[in-house]
Fold this sequence. Notes:
Blueprint: H1 18-31, H2 36-53, H3 63-75, H4 87-106, H5 139-152, H6 154-166, H7 170-174, E1 181-182, E2 185-186, E3 188-189, E4 195-196, H8 202-215, H9 235-249, H10 255-269, H11 274-281
Antiparallel strand pairs: 1-2, 3-4
Helix pairs in contact: 1-2, 2-4, 5-6, 6-8, 6-10
Amino acid sequence: MENPLASDDGLLVGQRSLVYLRREWLSDLRSENRSTNTIKWYGAKLEYLERQTGIKTLDQLTKGVINSFLAGIADGTLPDSKKQGSDAYRAGFWRAIKAFIYWCRRNGYEPHHSLLNNEQKFSLRKPKEEDVIIEIFTPDEVEKMREIAHHIGARELLAVEILLSTGIRMFELVNIELDDIQGSNLKVRGKGRKVRYPPLPTRLQKMLSVYQRKYRPGSPTDKLFLTDNGQPLSWWGMNSLLKRLQKITGIHIHAHKFRHTFATRYLEKNPGQIEKLRLILGHSDYKVLMRYLHLAGQQAIADSYDEDDPFR
């Protein structure tokens, strides 16, 4: 008879199979409404770790094993490794392993004693990362994107405007529902199910009102953005729209570049308002926000959008 406590690799749950625990962890991340992209990223990191080290259970995952694994990435000796030797690539594995170990501890699966110090903090030092270059859109690029998006369609233009004007993340964008548009604020469901209410500029409020009236009356779904077939637009679908815009405009476009641009612009207009920016963006601390300070002295992006309603 099949043992109901056995995982797919034949190990008992009591033996703390890494495969079992990884799947349970990813399932918990889904229940927390984490983005599909984030969940896939975590899963890929842990799968690669399991494959390259050959370990099967949580108690085999020791500080020495992880250090050897990270060293193999750093010197490029591991097979199938991408971006070999990249500090950022190695730090990504460190972050994924740390998150997994903390999840195990919270859920009663005790990690190997070498992975936690006396204060129950992760004992492995974070690999040094090279300085991250923050990209923002120039005023000319913003206007070019608006112009091309307007010609492509109302959905594309609205998506660009929301990203530029609120700084929300891609998964937050595709999860916007019609009831989330609450007058001068937008209800956003962020990481860990945290809810925040970034303000909506008057121009964007008008665009949303017209878009709802003209393109979303009587729809069977509550999502703001739909596919051409009337289904909720996924993260991958929205990313495809941005890639199309990138191809037409020749501008390097990715979702976080909108977020960087918004944050930089906000600090240009509101010097010193770091705490308000943190609340708008939904950051838990100030570390990431400090990256924008050196950019805030640049010329503010011109708010030169055509006041004639493009949806009228």
